[in-house]
Amino acid sequence: MSPYHPIHESTEIIHLAVLGHGKIGSEFIRQVIGQAELIALRKRIELRIFAIANSTSVILKSEGWCDDWQQAILEAMPQDGDLFETIIQFAQKQSLRNLILVDNTASEDVARAYPRFVQAGFDLVSSNKRANTLPWADYKALHDLLYTSGRIYRYETNVGAGLPLIDNIKLLHLSGERISRIYGVFSGSLSYIFNTLGQHPELGAEAIIQRAIALGYAEPDPREDLSGEDVARKLLILARELDIECEFEDIALEGLVPDPLRSLSQEEFTLRTEELAQNLDILRASCPREKALRYTGEVIWDDKTQTARLAARLEAVPLTSPLGALSSADCCFEIYTESYGDRPIIVQGAGAGVKVTARGVFGDVLRIAERRQR
């Protein structure tokens, strides 16, 4: 049976516009199409992907794309003009309701277009961190618009991939629980690299980085992970969930990319990756045997002085600690609160990977869909 044939007259139709069809975007589309019939049966929710776009082209179908979408993308011609407006106008002309924009890009231009979609009646789901790390004024303006428009914005995968972190922090904060510290390994990519460095001394750092890229844990340009900037963005997102007014520049960031390599093009850097790898090998050799290298993030809130400290850095932690015992691409977040004292709430699990991230995005879509049911 086609996933786009309602099986019950009371089934609620949810229309999705998906921006980005790279690894995560394609996996998300595959998951939605694969689960459509089951969701319709169990939840009486029908998910229709009416738009799929990247930076140059868009394919549109009011009845929803099925497995034919990949061929349609291949045949799509680059489009001049405003892709965002094309999607909005199509939805309006087709009188589509229950609209959700699903952003699986890493584009700031897409993030800055969110207000246009909100004003056109779209809810938002995003694995893209950019909107939540814009300057505070822009961040605040978006969230104020969402509130006044009655629209929903979900971004659980911004930190921790598919782990249930952001929702829990929101609920703790809103319920009046004072969160004083969030500490841990925030990057699944860096977790994999440093776990493997420690557990496989026979492997050089360059080989480990290439393996992380091949497994989909790290970006093709490893500087994006090893710069520490991705961890810093996640710190900023969590701090803002605690209503801390802060900017990216407020974070004490210790990157791992040597200065001479930072400004190189990716092509130039590819010829000099061994310099970055040598730096990691030196760090590994200097780590005490009873400790493990971990790239950590930390948010500290002082309720008395109403000040915050945010830091991203490499540390040597005891092997017996929760962070020291991590394996593979796992993340670990320790949440310290007033009620729990020195025994933190710990959220731990896979922090990187295409499937877990796509599944987290899918979960956010389903949560909005359930709220939009009549």
In total, the number of domains comes to: 2
- Overall pLDDT level: 94
**N-to-C CA distance:** 25 Å
Largest sheet: 6 strands, mixed
Name of the top-level CATH class of the largest domain: Alpha Beta
Helix content: 40-55%
CATH architecture of the largest domain: 2-Layer Sandwich
> What is the third-level CATH name, the topology of the largest domain?
Dihydrodipicolinate Reductase, domain 2
Radius of gyration (CA) equals 22 Å
Q: Tally of extended strands?
A: 12
CATH superfamily of the largest domain: Dihydrodipicolinate Reductase, domain 2
Computed structural class: alpha/beta
Indicate the proportion of strand residues: 15-25%
Put simply, the count of helices is: 15
Strand order of the largest sheet: 3-2-1-4-5-6
Poorly predicted regions: none
- Principal-axis shape equals globular
User: H/E element string?
Assistant: EHEEHHEHHEHEHEHHHHEHHHEEEEH
Written description of the protein model:
This protein has 374 residues and is an alpha/beta fold. It folds into 2 domains: 12-161 and 356-373, NAD(P)-binding Rossmann-like Domain (Rossmann fold); 165-352, 2-Layer Sandwich (Dihydrodipicolinate Reductase, domain 2), CATH 3.30.360. It is built from 15 helices and 12 strands. The strands form 2 sheets. The protein has a 6-stranded mixed beta sheet, with helices on both faces. Strands 8-10-9-7-11-12 form a 6-stranded mixed beta sheet. A hairpin with a 4-residue loop joins strand 9 (291-302) and strand 10 (307-318). Helix 1 crosses helix 15. The two termini are 25 Å apart. The mean pLDDT is 94.
